[in-house]
Amino acid sequence: MDYQQKLAEKLTILNERGSGVLIRMNYIKKLCADPKLRPGFLSDKVMEPAVKYINKKFPNIDYRGNIQNLTCIQRQKSEVLAATASFYDSFLDVIEFRDHVYELLNTIDACQCYFDIASNFDFTKNYLDLISTYASVIILLSRIDDKKVLVGMFNCAHEMTNGSSDPSYPRLGQMFVEYDHPWKKLTEEFGPHTRSVTAALLSLKMVYPRRNLPAEQWRSAQLLSLLSTPASMLDPACCETMACEYLSMEIMERWIIIGFLLCHSSLNTNQASQELWKMALRSGLFLNLTREEVLNIHKVSEDLFDGMKGYSKRIADIKECREHVLVNCGAMHRERRHYLRVALKELFKVLEDEPGLLGPKALFVMMALSFSRDEVMWLVRHSENMPKMKTLDDYNDNQMAELLFFMEKLRGLMKKYNHVVQRYHVQYLAQFDALLLNDTIQNMYVCPEEESVLLSSFVSTLSALSIKQVDSKEEFDFRGLRMDWLRLQAYTSVTKAPLPLKDYSDLAKVMNMIQFHTRMVDSVEEMLHETSELSILCSYPRVFEKMFTQSSEEMTMKRYLMSFPSVCSHFSQCGHPLCPEETEILEKRSLRLCVTFLEQIAKQTSGVVLEICAEQRNLNDQLLPKHCAESISAARYRKQKKPLPKKGEVQKEKPGAESLRKDRSVTTNMDKLHMMLTELCSSYSLSADIIVFEHVVVPAEFLLSQLEMRLTEIIIKMTNYNQTTQEIARPSDLLAGIRSYTASMHCLAGYINLDVTRLVKSVLLQQTQPLDSHGGPTVTHYYTTWYLEALLRQASSSLIVHCPTMQCFVSQSADNELSFRAEEFSDVSGGENVLKRMTIIGVILSFRSMAMNCLKDILRKHCPYLMAPIECLRNFIYPETDIKVTLGVFELASAAGLKCDIDPALVAAISNMQTDNTSVEEEFKLSRLLLVYVAVSLPILALDPNSLYSQEHGGHKNNIHCLAAAINQLTAAMFTVQNKNIEQQLKEFLLLASSTLLQLGQNVERVEVKNRESIYLLLHMIVEDSPFLSQDMLESCFPYVLLRNAYREVHKAVFMPTA
């Protein structure tokens, strides 16, 4: 019985198995050809004699007689056996596959099966797929150069280990020898199958020519247009050969070319065969076998027929077809791609606006995707393999992004509105297809029992469908129904079948339509994979990257660039369980391509954004106060009625002049930048994330990362720091630049949904640290370095003065610098050194205090709700409070810029300086001695001409007023660490300092006492700055009249005329 032949099941299983074996052979070929992946023993110098010997003697290798050449294998037989086992098993899979294929082909020939792509579509397609897959496996096997070495070494190691050859080795060796010239052997094997193969191929004569039309005919027929016939827009898209409408043209060409090469005798006997074959030969130069492996169809055909008797005309046909391809094919496919770009865009816009049309027009979507995929794949394989010629531009496409984009958009629509498609087709199947099929069955005059059971089950299954199943999100599975239809095709396609399908064309049409409708219900993803999967691009990374580069250079293509990384999500679908080793390679390549594309898009987008920011910053700079001098001067000229500038002089344009336009059609640079930004940001709308294998890639994060990196670089560049000349930008200028950039960056949110606030915070927070997240120097680093090495260093040399009045540092002019005589300071060098160091510390602390005041003002402005509780906590700290609690609160307050009685940072620094060798009492003595030393050294400062107090600056010209901060803060920190009474120690310091300064007043020599009053004021500053000393304490040890007189003298000196 024909039912027992299981033709449908065998075809399904062998096609799946054949795909795996084909991919496995391709993997082995690439592995052996790649120096990085090639098995080590094939390149090992030690193994070279064995490799040469096996290649020369294969398959009849004497493993015992010529042991000298095989000694290296003998030594490593276990390793060789393990390394070659998987390759050997893979080649055995080819033998097993070949045996099953020939067994099935012989059975089909014996059953005299009827093939017609329009009637028994699945049966014919599976049959032709099996033939082309088998031929591809054998061709790819013949291209593996190291196959004999791999098999020979395995068998050698096997015999050395087990004492005998592997049982399958003779057949495997024979197969390798036979297929050294694969086409010759294949044509001999397929000679008996010529009738069946030719019949199956000739069934394409109505389908293939209709698909292989130039763009002009597509355009005249308004192919894929829903708007061409508005009245029929809601009508379901149906035809008698629904599955043929989206059948890949590449697949049909593979069937035709390979089929007629295997069964070439029909080319000389059948005119229809010859015409179909020549049409396929005119379609291109290369045919895809798998991955990047192609067949040069004209060369292979010519080589096969060359020397064959009676094939001279066919060779002439081949040459004529090749010339036709070289002259016409590139331009024809270019026009097709141009038409498809417009057609897909229109189709998407209509369906996006009215997604309900996806139900009746689902066939249009599948056709559009299939046609586009064919054109993309044709261009890819020809771009990679095309010989150098004048019309090479026809094989480059700088608008590929648009075609890929709308393919992805249509795929996205089908997935998004899957429930709409499902709902429509469930109703169609239950309320139309079931009734039509039932009527068709009733009109059949013969219906055997087996066929009747299958047909009845179809009707009952479809009739039971309900819209409620869709609403309740029930899972549908019609795979069993479709498999039964394939079985029925097999039963009814054999000779002398009780129910010959060729006599019941209505049944075939109805069932083919039902099959398409069921696939729209339960396997839309599978259909999308079948019609639009572009995993071939993973095998052609160079071409893929070239397409991206060409598209990115076109202004109109920038909005479509996101289609390139989106296509990388297809690559996970091209693997096979028979070749799991390939998965890791595909995953790495897919991720690399996806990340490369996203980084390039992000770089372009961030570049445009930051260029806009730079332009805006230049405009904002024109409004800075420093640029208003010329405007003020011009206003004074007008007020004083002075002569205007001469006519020859060009007047500088005022800010805002760039916005005045006489002609709106004239585009400015900013217009172009904003247009480019609009285009680039539009591409991000394609998808919020891209899934590549098991990785979720978010395009917007790449843009954020690029913006963060580039903005960081720009901020650093804006500092203009020059270590050699110690130059740096003014902080106010830098702040204005940063504010301009951040304001412009926030405008980016109008183009793309991006968290700009997070970006700006991340960048600016990193700039508060010495190093950023990439380990690079920050603004904080540069300004800290500059303040320490330039400003504060010069302050220690009295070239720069700390000005408490204006809360800043002031440069002193060279005219005010006084020269020193060495003999005047030679006897007090020690004391001078301590006071100088204390002054430097005071300057640093004063600078820090200014910075903290700025921080306090900023925090009070931005988060007053946070500052108020912190101030309240600080104010509740009393001297009796536990020191750990005190320091904890002060640390919080200092971080907010608030001044504290004890500086927690200094306490921590001094604590870290302590060693285990010194006792606390010893440290206490040294601290007291330091205060004594400072106190008794204060009168020495009167010898310095720069110790003069400046009323204008509110301090001394040599910065000794900063000693007040140094003495108070260091004393508080030191005695806090030593757990001593701070107030008591400062009182003792005040008594000693007052005593030494009073002795200074008894000195009558003019040279020593000329700055005496300025030094008296220093003592008053120390008390004023201290939270532990008071004016009462000062008056008890130092007469207030001396302070009053000192203030009068220093202020009087300002108004006295110089001699």
Short description:
This protein has 1059 residues and is mainly alpha-helical.
Helix fraction, binned, reads: 55-70%
Strand order of the largest sheet: 1-2
Return Rg in Å.
45 Å
Q: Give the percentage of residues in beta strands.
A: under 5%
Number of strands: 8
Largest sheet at a glance?
2 strands, antiparallel
Shape: elongated
Helix/sheet category: mainly alpha
What number is the mean pLDDT?
Answer: 87
Total helices: the number is 48
> What is the number of domains?
4
What is the first-to-last residue Cα distance? 134 Å
The parts where pLDDT drops under 50 for at least 5 residues are: 815-831
Task: Give structural notes.
The chain has 1059 residues and is an all-alpha fold. The chain folds into four domains: 1-180, no CATH class; 418-532, no CATH class; 541-626 and 668-777, no CATH class; 803-1053, no CATH class. 65% of the residues lie in helices and 3% in strands. It has a two-stranded antiparallel ribbon. Strands 3-4 form a two-stranded antiparallel sheet. Strands 5-6 form a two-stranded antiparallel sheet. α5 (77-111) crosses α7 (147-162) and α43 (963-977) crosses α46. The longest helix is centred in the N-terminal third of the chain and has 42 residues, at 312-353. It is elongated, with a radius of gyration of 45 Å. The model is unreliable at 815-831 (pLDDT under 50).
